Amino acid sequence: MLKYITLIAVVIFLGWMLKRQWRLKKMQWKGEHVPEQKGLRPITLLSVVMVALYGGYMLWYLINQMLQTVT
Please, which contacts does 8-11 make with residues 24 or more away whose CB atoms are closer than 8 Å? Predict the structure, then answer.
């Protein structure tokens, strides 16, 4: 189940990034001001979310296995 949620998140992220890049290119072609990017890059944010998600799953699995072996 987790792999399907991850796949959906990556597809949504890629779609968002492509739309954003296309919009910025269109602004650049028209000669409009292209805003600077401030803060975390989107790919960094996605990687932090993925690491937290898989880390949480790993901890949940390990704790669940420990509790099953104790009882």
Answer: 9/46, 9/49, 9/50, 10/46
